[in-house]
Design a protein that fits this description.
Strand content: under 5%
Largest sheet: none
Helix content: over 70%
Structural class: mainly alpha
């Protein structure tokens, strides 16, 4: 089925068009989970906890790529909807140049300051050494990671979501194979896991450059251009919600680890690590769907097609709610076997993880609606509202809940924190959708 951004989208067309980015995000999450599986089972519990401790910081650096990709693709799709194809191509090219420049700078700074950062995160002794080793190797490939995040959104805008899926699959299989080789066969430990991830990111982030450098059948092509401050600021501000979500989520992750070390020790951090790996897969469905619908929303916003905006919004909210309910049910059924894959070797850690996952899973019910709402406003080029939803959902509500709920119910309060935060975020999302209904005429 050949689907264009200008089409009217039925449920079937939404499913077909959004399936590649959904699978793309799921597979990206799965090969991250494979890292955790090999580290936990072949290297040990302490290295596994160390990787989970430093991961939030690494995700902040990679989050800059999400900001550039989502903000830049929304602006590019809007130009396409307005019939400004050359302007769209120059904007696309500009975003790739910006990603490369910022990626190199962030990588250098991260490698220099990784040890003091690890100390601030609460790591010490052997755990700190594992964090530094993993972090430095990963950051050597940060530019490729950022490019991979950028291209995930731009392939959908270019009406080539299947190519985005292809490159993600190639990167994923590369990571899985190298994890097995570097960790299980060569016994390179956390350095091997980081190297496998870095090489796979090159597959997903560098190879697409060659596709867009040559003549291709997509909507987007590289054009000679230079960095325009106004365009860059507009794209970055518009995509700031995704960066805010990454930064806030990472900061909250650090706060979780701090609380868990205090209340449950290394077992608590390891159990939370399992929850995060599994959550990545489930949330990937919501994020992938949002990536798939975003250029459609931006295109119709640029074309002033308010009827189609309403159509996409109503259908998407129904899809997100139904999917969230299904995920909660699946999480409760699969909590034991999933926990066994990662920490089945430790009975007490296994029991803690199963119990935590069953509580944590209720967050999925409203999570999809909140993620889509933030993406919806980014696609409408309203970065302020999108950032507000992300900021309140992650940093304000989650951090407040993770600090206060343990005072009421101890360790269980930490596991309930995300679900409670999503309820508050849902109320905020509903308010914003209601307040801006007349401005964008989607209801």
């Amino acid at each position: 089925m050949n689907i264009k951004l200008s089409d009217h989208f039925s449920y079937k067309k939404l499913a077909v068009f959004c399936m590649p980015p959904v699978f793309m995000m799921i597979f990206t999450s799965i090969y991250g989970v494979v890292d955790g599986f090999f580290i936990s089972n072949f290297v040990g519990k302490l290295p596994f906890a160390a990787v989970n401790l430093v991961m939030p910081f690494l995700m902040i650096l990679g989050g800059v790529g999400f900001m550039i990709g989502t903000g830049g693709s929304a602006l590019t799709a809007k130009y396409l909807g307005e019939g400004e194809k050359d302007k769209a191509n120059r904007c696309f090219t500009m975003m790739i140049l910006l990603t490369v420049i910022s990626g190199v700078v962030l990588s250098a700074l991260g490698m220099i300051f990784i040890r003091p950062i690890v100390s601030l995160l609460g790591a010490y002794g052997e755990m700190a050494n594992y964090c530094v080793t993993y972090g430095r190797v990963i950051m050597a490939f940060n530019t490729a990671f950022m490019l991979q995040n950028v291209f995930q959104t731009f392939f959908t805008t270019a009406e080539k979501p299947h190519l985005g899926l292809f490159f993600t699959l190639a990167a994923g299989f590369t990571n899985m194979a190298l994890d097995a080789l570097f960790i299980a066969v060569f016994d390179w430990g956390v350095a091997g896991a980081a190297l496998a991830t870095g090489i796979s990111q090159c597959v997903g982030g560098i190879l697409p450059v060659f596709y867009f450098c040559r003549p291709n059948g997509s909507l987007l092509k590289f054009r000679k251009t230079f960095i325009e401050g106004k365009t860059v600021l507009k794209a970055c501000f518009n995509g700031s919600s995704e960066l805010m979500s990454n930064i806030s989520g990472s900061l909250v992750g650090m706060l979780y680890n701090f609380q868990l070390i205090r209340l449950a020790g290394e077992n608590g951090v390891a159990a939370y690590g399992v929850l995060m790996y599994v959550q990545f897969i489930f949330i990937a469905v919501f994020i992938g769907y949002s990536i798939g619908t975003a250029p459609v929303i931006s295109y119709n916003f640029g074309a002033a097609n308010h009827t189609e905006l309403k159509n996409i919004l109503i259908k998407s909210l129904k899809i997100m709610l139904a999917t969230g309910i299904a995920m909660t049910a699946a999480s409760n059924l699969l909590s034991a076997p999933l926990a066994k894959i990662f920490v089945g070797y430790d009975a007490s850690l296994y029991e803690m993880t199963v119990h935590a996952f069953r509580i944590f899973s209720f967050a999925f019910i409203l999570q999809g609606i909140n993620i889509f709402t933030s993406s919806f406003f980014t696609a409408l080029n309203n970065g302020a509202v999108s950032a507000a939803v992300s900021f309140l959902r992650t940093l304000v509500f989650q951090s407040s809940c993770v600090m206060t709920l343990p005072l009421i119910s101890g360790l269980d309060g930490i596991w309930w924190a995300v679900a409670a935060a999503e309820v508050f975020a849902f109320l905020i999302s509903a308010v914003f959708l209601f307040v801006y209904r007349k401005r964008y005429r989607y209801i």
